[in-house]
């Protein structure tokens, strides 16, 4: 058996960043930018008003107060998206709405609240200014957000909703990104039944395909569901061949010691095995290798194959530990590791066989300190232990375990306000 670090290192050695594609900005959420983006425009394009009020010459408001107002002529109104045609000259003001370009001659905006607007109800040819304006008052300057010619988003940036908005503000409908990996997902086993069918006695529903496919979606990939292969070589090979145009193959089941665990044998025939077992609990059986596939133009390529254990917790756990970093590398994303933190463990965890334990836990913050408690039974078939968990307590392989009250490392599966 090899260590978790050795396994991950061997996996990442065999993973390459995928090609670049041009994608509509709303479709590339979570993808990585493959080019620098610079602006050809100023944002905002012109000086504009930050408030509803009156555009004025600040010199005309010197000394203005509620006890000593300055009365100005109102020569018109300007709204967002329009340009006022005249210049604001001495003694004049223009009624202006938020976002409207500042008229020529004006250098500040006085809010409606600092005028007698409410008394005149906006219908007067005059307005009393009740406060002194200074140049730039309530004005958003041209280029305040982005200046023409500046670098706005760098190559390697992960596109979030904010980046989508920035790209739209530049007038870009599409951007070059590293494409999403297509991940073929296959379940194996004579005992596994599709969720759309009745459940015969002695059978189980195919949960692994859906939990794994959901993880692929969550981390930015595109799942391609291949169905279920029977525990015979011909069936497994036929199903695997349906996924040879994918960027990654993920199987569940058939990698342990049983008479019908044939994934390793098929992988050895169809490609090469890089490693088989990892010194961890759960998830010791993990076959990783490269299988011959077909690229879009028909040329031969090597596809990484993850043979996950059939136990649902082991399958999800090893996807998080190993397939997720591989997906991120394919997409050009950093960092590859999940967030970790220190927490006080609420109960004992025994380590009796020298493997690294990943215990499903609920992490909470109390009094400025993180605490972790197990979700309940920790068997690798207890899928609800993953549903309840927001973190994995890591017990090192070279320790006999941890005791209640010890400080432990926790790899977070989810991060939310509940643990901040």
Summarize the structure.
This protein is of the alpha/beta class and 420 residues long.
Structural features, described:
The structure is a single chain. The chain has about 425 residues and is an alpha/beta fold. It folds into 4 domains: about 5-20 and about 180-330, MoaB/Mog-like domain (Molybdenum Cofactor Biosythetic Enzyme, Chain A), CATH 3.40.980; about 25-45 and about 145-180, Molybdopterin biosynthesis moea protein, domain 2 (Alpha-Beta Complex); about 50-140, Molybdopterin biosynthesis moeA protein, domain 3; about 340-420, Beta-clip (Beta Barrel), CATH 2.40.340. Helix content is about 20%, strand content about 30%. The strands form 8 sheets. It has a 6-stranded mixed beta sheet, sandwiched between helices. Strands 7-4-6-5-8 form a 5-stranded mixed beta sheet, with no helix packed on it. A 5-stranded mixed barrel has the order 21-24-23-25-27. Strand 19 (about 285-295) and strand 20 form a beta hairpin. Helix 1 packs across helix 7 (about 310-330).
């Amino acid at each position: 058996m090899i260590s978790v670090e050795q396994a991950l290192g061997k996996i990442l050695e065999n993973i390459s960043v995928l090609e670049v594609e041009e994608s509509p900005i709303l479709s590339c959420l979570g993808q990585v930018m493959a080019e620098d983006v610079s602006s050809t425009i100023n944002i905002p394009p012109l000086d504009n008003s930050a408030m509803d009020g009156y555009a004025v010459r600040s010199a005309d408001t010197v000394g203005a107060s509620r006890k000593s107002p300055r009365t100005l002529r109102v020569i018109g109104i300007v709204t967002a998206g329009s340009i006022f045609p005249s210049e604001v000259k001495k003694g004049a003001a223009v009624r202006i709405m938020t976002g409207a370009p500042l008229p020529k001659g004006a250098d500040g905006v006085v809010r409606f609240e600092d005028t007698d607007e409410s008394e005149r109800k906006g219908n007067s040819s005059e307005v009393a200014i009740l406060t002194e304006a200074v140049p730039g008052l309530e004005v958003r300057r041209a280029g305040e957000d982005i200046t023409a010619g500046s670098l706005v988003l760098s190559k390697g940036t992960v596109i979030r909703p904010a980046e989508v908005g920035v790209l739209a503000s530049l007038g870009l409908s599409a951007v070059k990104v590293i494409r999403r990996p297509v991940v073929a997902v296959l379940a194996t086993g004579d005992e596994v039944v599709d969720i759309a069918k009745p459940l015969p006695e002695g059978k189980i529903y195919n949960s692994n395909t859906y939990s794994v496919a959901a993880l692929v979606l969550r981390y930015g990939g595109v799942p391609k569901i291949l169905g279920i292969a029977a525990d015979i070589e011909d069936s497994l090979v036929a199903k695997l061949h349906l996924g040879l145009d994918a960027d990654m193959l993920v199987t569940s089941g058939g990698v342990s010691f049983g008479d019908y665990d044939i994934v390793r044998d098929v992988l050895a025939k169809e490609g090469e095995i890089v490693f088989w077992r990892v010194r961890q609990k759960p998830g010791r059986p993990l076959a990783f290798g490269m299988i011959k596939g077909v690229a879009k133009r028909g040329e031969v390529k090597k596809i990484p194959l993850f043979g996950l254990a059939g136990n649902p917790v082991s399958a999800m756990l090893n996807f998080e530990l190993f397939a997720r970093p591989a997906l991120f590398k394919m997409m050009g994303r950093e960092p590859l590791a999940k967030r970790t933190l220190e927490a006080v463990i609420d109960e004992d965890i025994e380590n009796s066989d020298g493997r690294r334990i990943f215990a499903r836990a609920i992490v909470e913050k109390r009094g400025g300190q993180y605490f972790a408690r197990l979700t309940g039974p920790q068997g690798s078939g207890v899928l609800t232990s993953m549903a309840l968990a927001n973190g994995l307590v890591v017990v090192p392989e070279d320790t006999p375990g941890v005791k209640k009250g010890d400080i432990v490392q926790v790899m977070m599966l989810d991060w939310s306000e509940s643990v901040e």
